[in-house]
Design the sequence.
């Protein structure tokens, strides 16, 4: 695949190196999957090469190549085979970003250089009763002098049992106001071997043949104040930042998987002869391959653009959740297509296509479900794209009699009165017959504050001329009733027919 014009020479070089390295590791990686081994040796080599430090600043022992560098490593390692990449993303997202952004200088010096050299990390959020609802976590952290004491359990953690460093989120306040404002969570680093901290169970996860996932038990685990990242109560903010970064890397990994699908499916179909010709010549197979290429092309652009935005210091909340959900869904759809192109061999474990098929489904859940991503996109989208989501004022064209948009403000606003409000609502009926008007819409036409406007609407409502929509905050929207429309204008005023509608058709 082509590099992007905005990559630096160092990014290009990194891509070349990781690509070459991944090819060298591919046989061993496959072996570890069949043997159900954890690939310590590969991981050590990745550490030696410094790839884990791609996104760590140079002053802390990393390469200083930002999110773009991290994504290059994630894509290239995933492109050879699902397992290697998973290990690295699990580590790179293992609390590094959070330490870079929120750790103090001493913590950065202590944690980052070892992480860059290959120390395996884990992100520890999920609990028995807190999955998508991560803010409902219950693992308790109680301050005692210069330490915190942690009690509770966590589950579904990638690298459980093998990670050395755990970025743990715990509850530090039961105060309802703190909880409402998401100030009840605090972040900590917990090292493997800390007394009371144990791996409780290892899971058997789809497609996770050579990596680990499991649960933890925290039984009076003492964590020094020095290992708290950020301030007490800052955990939610740190988690959200971390998830944006994690989702970007996961999405970059899915690019590698999509490339693997092509790497096997196309040569396979070029060599598989049926009905006297290679199956690549069958249009149904060509269409499927084209779909895979389309998805990969668009996803790749979106992933590296998101990484670029992050490197520029921009908010990537919408982009990172979008590319994560897209990556999982596109990879699964492409794996479905490619499996079909390869027929029986598509579901045969002797080809990696089957493995990608499985791991793509896992990626619908890990790192936040695709539904959770959509929740984030919806909520943030309404805020961040607010300007793009404003319907222009619509007025009746005098010439055509149909609604036309106008971005110009109303030249002369009306003074507030019941008649004025009813007139505005009746006029709106002519352009938006199915909609209520918000107070803010009405105020485009009437010079009034909310209080005066609500008073007029309530008076009209009492007379049956207006219907009001209320929330806990009171009246939010209004619409003229049938009686109201009649009172505002004669029936003729509302009529409109297209020119072709002759009298006998009205
Ligand atoms: C392979 C794997 C690796 C993982 N790695 C880690 C890790 O390293 N660290 C970690 O902390 N966690 C990890 N997780 C946990 C993962 O983040 C959670 O599984 C995920 O957030 C979903 O939580 P849940 O499984 O409890 O599902 P639930 O929250 O119970 O959700 C069940 C279903 O309901 C949907 N749903 C729930 N709430 C809503 C809503 N409000 N709107 C719409 N739909 C909703 C979900 O999308 C899902 O489809 C991993 C999970 C897996 C499977």
Sequence:
């Amino acid at each position: 695949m082509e590099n992007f014009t905005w990559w630096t020479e160092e990014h290009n070089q990194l891509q070349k190196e990781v690509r070459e390295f991944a090819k060298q590791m591919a046989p061993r990686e496959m072996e570890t999957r069949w043997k159900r081994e954890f690939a310590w040796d590969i991981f050590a080599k990745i550490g030696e090469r410094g790839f884990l430090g791609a996104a760590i600043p140079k002053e802390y022992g990393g390469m200083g190549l930002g999110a773009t560098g991290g994504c290059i490593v994630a894509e290239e390692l995933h492109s050879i085979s699902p397992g290697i990449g998973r290990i690295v993303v699990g580590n790179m997202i293992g609390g590094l970003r959070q330490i870079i952004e929120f750790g103090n200088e001493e913590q950065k010096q202590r944690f980052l250089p070892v992480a860059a050299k290959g120390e395996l990390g884990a992100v520890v959020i999920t609990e028995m009763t807190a999955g998508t609802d991560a803010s409902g976590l219950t693992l308790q952290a109680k301050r005692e002098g210069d330490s915190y004491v942690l009690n509770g359990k966590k589950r579904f953690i990638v690298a459980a049992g093998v990670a050395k460093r755990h970025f743990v989120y715990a509850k530090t306040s039961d105060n309802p106001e703190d909880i409402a404002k998401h100030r009840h969570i605090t972040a900590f680093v917990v090292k493997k071997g800390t007394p009371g901290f144990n791996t409780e169970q290892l899971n058997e996860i789809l497609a996770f043949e050579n990596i680990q996932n499991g649960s933890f038990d925290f039984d009076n685990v003492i964590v020094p104040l020095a290992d708290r990242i950020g301030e007490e109560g800052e955990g939610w903010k740190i988690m959200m930042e971390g998830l944006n970064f994690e989702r970007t890397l996961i999405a970059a990994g899915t690019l590698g998987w999509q490339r693997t699908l092509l790497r096997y499916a196309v040569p396979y179909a070029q060599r598989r002869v049926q009905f006297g010709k290679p199956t690549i010549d069958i249009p149904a197979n060509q269409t499927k391959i084209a779909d895979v290429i389309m998805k990969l092309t668009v996803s790749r652009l979106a992933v590296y653009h998101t990484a670029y935005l992050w490197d520029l210091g921009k908010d990537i909340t919408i982009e990172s959740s979008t590319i994560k959900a897209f990556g999982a869904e596109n990879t699964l759809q492409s794996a479905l297509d490619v499996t079909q192109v390869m027929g029986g061999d598509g579901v045969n474990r002797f080809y990696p296509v089957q493995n990608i098929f499985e791991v793509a489904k896992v990626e619908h859940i890990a790192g936040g479900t695709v539904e959770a991503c959509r929740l984030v996109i919806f909520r943030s989208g309404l805020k961040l794209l607010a300007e793009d989501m404003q319907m222009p004022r619509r007025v009746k064209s005098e010439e055509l009699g149909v609604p036309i948009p106008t971005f110009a403000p109303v030249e002369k606003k009306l003074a507030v009165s019941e008649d004025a409000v009813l007139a505005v609502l009746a006029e709106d009926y002519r352009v938006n017959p199915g909609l209520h008007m918000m107070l803010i819409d009405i105020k485009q036409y009437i010079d009034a504050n909310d209080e005066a406007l609500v008073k007029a609407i309530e008076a009209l409502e009492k007379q049956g001329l207006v219907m009001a929509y209320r929330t806990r905050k009171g009246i939010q929207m209004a619409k003229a009733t049938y009686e109201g429309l009649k009172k505002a204008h004669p029936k003729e005023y509302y009529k409109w027919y297209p020119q072709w509608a002759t009298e006998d058709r009205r």
Notes: Residues 122-126, 131-132, 156-158, 205, 213, 362, 365-366, 368-369, 371-372, 375 surround flavin-adenine dinucleotide (CB under 6 Å).
